Amino acid sequence: MHTVLVVDDEAAIRTALDQILTYESYRVLTAPGGVEALRILEEEKVDAMLLDVKMAGMDGFEVLDRIRQLGLDLPVIVASGHGNIETAVEAVKKGAYDFLEKPLDRSRLLLTLANSLNHHQLRDQAREWRSRAGGDSPLVGECPGMHEVKDFITRVASTDATVLITGENGTGKELVVRALHAASHRRDKPLVEVNCAAIPKDLVESELFGHEKGSFTGADRVRIGKFEQADGGTLFLDEIGDMSEEAQAKVLKAVEESRFERVGGRQPREVDVRIVAATNRDLTGPDSRFRRDLFYRLNVLSVHLPPLRERGDDTELLLSHFMFELSRQTKIPVKQISPDALDILRRHPWPGNVRELRNLVERLLILSRGETILISDLPPDITGEGHSSSNDDNILMCNDFQEFKARSEASFLQAKLIENQYNVSKTAETLGMQRSNLYKKITRYELQTQADGERGQTDERID
Fold it and tell me: Among the CATH numbers 1.10.10.60, 3.30.390.10, 3.40.1360.10, 3.40.50.300, which is that of 404-463?
């Protein structure tokens, strides 16, 4: 039920409008003047306002000014018995949705009110879709790698060329896709996402291309596939490296020809879609089973997202960004981070990348008790303490298998280094791996390289 605030200094008009709107199933609040109206707006959720212009004390135009200053977002319909073009224009300039002359016509009033509410709702929906498409989700970061990513988006968004995005899990590949779509001429068309790793092998063709009724057991109705759903817009093939070889062949044909047939169908269907693919795998490595011809077809334009551990001061920028964003969402006041805690967060290897950082900020915002986040508020896997069950609990909270593997490997190697007193040769021998390989992993995960207080050790230890 929508709530409407009626503001008029004539009691008879307030009563009449109250009766009319209540009969039409609106919840009605009334105020005899501007001051009382603003007080109600501070205390109640109001969906729309009917506002008189000529009132003693604070008139309708002053109320409109105050609404704008307070940042209140609601449609206002202005009414006046002294209506003229100048008054109507002034009302609209100050943010009114529409202007009505008194005496009010019941039908026109109800139609204008319904239209204002509908317009407001559609505008909010448009904002939400723009947010989902990346319009309100900026790529935060000032490191050289992120500047390259932003420049890439600026230069290629307006084209229809296929894009391949690479990078570890949690680096923000989906944000890049949304930003590309939002900056393209396809922004008003669908952005359709397909998680290639989540589709069962025997359903890939149906999921991507759809099927006709009766084409197989259980196909009791026509299904529109992702390619058709994305017609005119952008199709995002996430985790493309996990797609089966059989599905790769079908996708290659569809991408090359921009046409396909539904499962069980004989009629070719043409679509106009921009393909953006993403992967955390090396699609051209010796162990890769990814089709080279599909790789070259997808790799027309490519961009790599750097892991968070290679982004320098971006960690602090992202901490601030997520703190304000999540504070707004959770209605919890922004919290400061103590210098000691911030220093630990800067040095953390972030195997889960930006996604891990965001999850941590949300956790700290909700669970930390004071106004400042201290080292004691940080989880053990961040501080390096307690590599046993408490760390296992945090590992089990990973978002996906890749993050789980990275966290597990980092924790395991750190524990073995500590166990062998940071002797790399001995640790590598114990683990049955090449010392050079262990060095690479130490660098990758930015593992602790010496005990607290230790300095320059022998060559067999890490300096």
Answer: 1.10.10.60
52 pairs with which residues across the strands? 79
Q: What is the DSSP letter of 462?
A: -
Q: 51 is written with which tokens? A: 């506002």
Domains in the chain: boundaries: 3-131, 144-306, 307-378, 404-463
What is the C-alpha separation between 55 and 406, in angstroms, rounded? 67
Just give the CATH number of 307-378. Answer: 1.10.8.60
Strand ranges (E), 246-398: 259-260, 269-270, 274-279, 301-304, 336-337, 372-373
Percent of the chain with pLDDT over 70: 89
Is beta strand 301-304 parallel, antiparallel or unpaired with respect to 336-337?
A: unpaired
Name the band, by pLDDT with cuts 50, 70 and 90, for residue 149.
very high
- One-letter amino acid of 458: T
CATH top class, domain 3-131: alpha beta
Radius of gyration for the alpha carbons in the chain, expressed in angstroms and rounded: 30
How sure is the predictor about 224, in pLDDT bands with cuts at 50, 70 and 90?
Answer: confident
**Average pLDDT rounded to a whole number, residues 413-432:** 82
What is the pLDDT at residue 125? Answer: 61
Q: What is the pLDDT of residue 367?
A: 92
State the Cα–Cα distance between residues 60 and 100, nearest whole angstrom. 13
| 3-state secondary structure (DSSP) of residue 83 | coil
Query: Which tokens hold the place of 402?
Result: 């890749």
Q: What is the mean pLDDT of residues 27-39?
A: 92
What is the number of other CB atoms lying within 10 angstroms of the CB of residue 186? 22
